[in-house]
Design goal:
single chain, alpha/beta, Rossmann fold, 7-stranded parallel sheet, 14 helices, 15 strands, globular
Length: 429
């Protein structure tokens, strides 16, 4: 046993001021929140009411009513705190909401294990020391299989969250596991702390670099607005639930992939972008194509998007699987029901486009003449399948044309780039 581990164990024996049943119902609660600057954590700061929030902050600063900050790091034993500070914090806290995580799907620098796995172990040890209920924010994709084919690079995040759940279960702390699906912006405003996942696909469609989507159009694409996620977590905590697992996902209410892509395409046209509905190619068909020749023939951005989408969605769409959902159970606890999926997606797209510098019409304004304000550069994007003008002599161009891809020259390097793929940051450490 290391000195740090021994000190943590000793603290766990001394910092237990609360009764086993928690604080009395009338007492004002104090909650430790990790990842307060991330997507879920920042939404929770606006949702949690009638309690004191202590945020463990590593780099980003946070503020708000009844919010205080303690410098620390989940990746360090005892959260990076000195012994006395650790003990004093444990004496104050009634509940812990653990949101801090690295959310990049394919990080290979060890941070997935350091933050997501070891960090969760440290947070769970603190919850046990404080005799506080741990509300652990996991992911709805913990059950994925990491094979050797497409998708293996994107599986690292989900595998780290699976290991984190096991760390919670073995910690001895009272705990609730919450599994949100893909998270988009606020259902009404579209606001979100960081652009992840689906926004990359939207950027590709808008920029004309995603003419081919290598998945079946009928596959469900499960996403949930961030305000719904925050409200569900808050309701579980406010109801003093001390055990169980909740899937914060759309489940049977999820849109089909082609329905979601149609919303994105329609939105792009409303901005004045000249886009066609991408072609859907089943994964097995896509994999049977003459891979290297096919990809090499595509413009660089199109090729990169096809590879990234294949990696990401092979893992996280899971071949048409419908996710479990606890929304009915959460609604019974007082959480808000799932809003209209199309409307929520449109609002998220509007917020994303405004943040990226596009001239976005007012909500409900059918101004298809509105033009993109910020992006510049050639319109080298594909616009549907061109009219036939004779036999196509080469089988590869014929294949590409059948997928709606026109091989045009790449843009000059001296031209300005369009707003493109978003960098997924480390969430809320």
């Amino acid at each position: 046993m290391t000195a740090q581990t021994a000190q943590t164990a000793q603290t766990a024996q001394t910092a237990r001021p609360h009764s086993a049943g928690g604080t009395p119902a009338a007492a004002r609660r104090t909650v430790l929140l990790t990842g307060a600057s991330g997507v879920v954590g920042s939404a929770l700061l606006g949702r949690l009411r009638d309690l004191d929030i202590v945020c463990l902050v590593h780099r980003a600063q946070v503020s708000g009513p009844n919010v205080s900050a303690v410098p620390g790091d989940v990746a360090e034993p005892m959260l990076g705190l000195a012994g006395q500070a650790y003990t004093e914090l444990a004496a104050r806290v009634d509940a812990v909401i653990h949101c801090a995580a690295v959310t990049a799907f394919n990080r290979a620098d060890g941070s997935l294990e350091t933050v997501n796995v070891a960090g969760t172990q440290h947070v769970a040890a603190f919850a046990a020391a404080a005799d506080a209920v741990l509300y652990h924010v996991s992911t709805a994709f913990v059950d994925i299989a990491a094979g050797s084919g497409p998708g293996r690079a994107a599986a690292g995040y989900a595998l780290s969250k699976r290991a984190a759940e096991q760390a919670v279960r073995s910690s001895g702390a009272a705990h609730v596991i919450l599994r949100p699906s893909v998270i988009i912006g606020d259902s009404a405003t579209g606001e979100i702390a960081a652009f992840q996942g689906l926004y990359k696909v939207a950027a590709g469609i808008l920029a004309g670099t995603a003419p081919v989507i290598p998945f079946g159009p009928a596959w469900p694409i499960d996403f949930v607005p961030v305000d719904v996620v925050a409200d569900a977590i808050a309701c579980v905590m406010e109801n003093r639930v001390r055990e169980g697992e909740f899937w914060i996902s759309a489940g049977e209410k999820a849109l089909r992939l082609d329905e979601a892509v149609a919303v994105v395409t329609e939105f792009a046209r409303g901005l004045g972008a000249d886009v066609a509905m991408p072609r859907f190619v089943p994964p097995d068909t896509f994999d049977r194509l003459p891979g290297r020749v096919f990809l090499a023939a595509l413009p660089a951005k199109v090729r990169g998007n096809a590879v990234r989408m294949r990696e990401l969605f092979t893992t996280y769409l899971q071949s048409g699987e419908v996710k479990p959902s606890s929304l009915d159970q959460l609604t019974a606890l007082g959480a808000r029901p799932l809003p209209d999926q199309r409307g929520s997606l449109r609002n998220s797209l509007r917020y994303w486009a405004a943040q990226k510098g596009y001239a976005v019409p007012e909500a409900g304004q059918a101004d298809t003449a509105s033009r993109v304000a910020a992006p510049a550069g050639p319109r080298w994007m594909r616009r549907g399948v061109p009219a036939a003008s004779g036999a196509v002599s080469s089988p590869l161009p014929a294949l590409l044309l059948s997928l709606g891809v026109r091989l045009l020259p790449r843009p000059r390097t001296t031209q300005r780039r369009r707003p493109g793929a978003d960098v997924v940051p480390t969430a809320g450490r």
